[in-house]
Amino acid sequence: MKKTVVNLKDEFAAIRTGRASAALFDKIKVDYYGNKSSLNQMANISIPEARLIVIQPWEKSQIGEIEKAIRSSELSLNPSNDGKVIRISIPPLTEERRKELVKLAKNQAEQSRVAVRNIRRDGNEELKQLLKGGDLTEDDEKANADELQKLTDSYITKISLIFEEKEKEIMEV
What is the pLDDT of residues 12-23, one digit of tens each? Predict the structure, then answer.
């Protein structure tokens, strides 16, 4: 369940909010001498202003490949370079795009809730197997099932809070 929440946070970090964030580039892979490498392993990513990202490659020869990878990503960003660094201006999001991003985040949050519930179901099935096998008493099975439900509820609440926070961040003008 913890992994599900961590995964959701990672997914949310990649959703653009109109504010510059290095996490936007976590999933971008760049062709580096025939191998796909993460952008953050090839360059220094800095944010000097709220709506500006500066990417400084460790190898100047990779600027073209990095720029190409950013353009072909689903981020809809337009990088420009001066031969040494790549600058990306983050445009403000339109109201329509904000609503699309909230819908995407809501879908990801719901998938995480379903994953947590599936983990609960698997745990309950395991408890029933232990009960059938005689390794667990009925009282212990009931107590463990109740504890599992409390744990599930707490993680569902965490997911909802993370979503609400992301929704506020996306809708912020």
Answer: 887 767 677 777
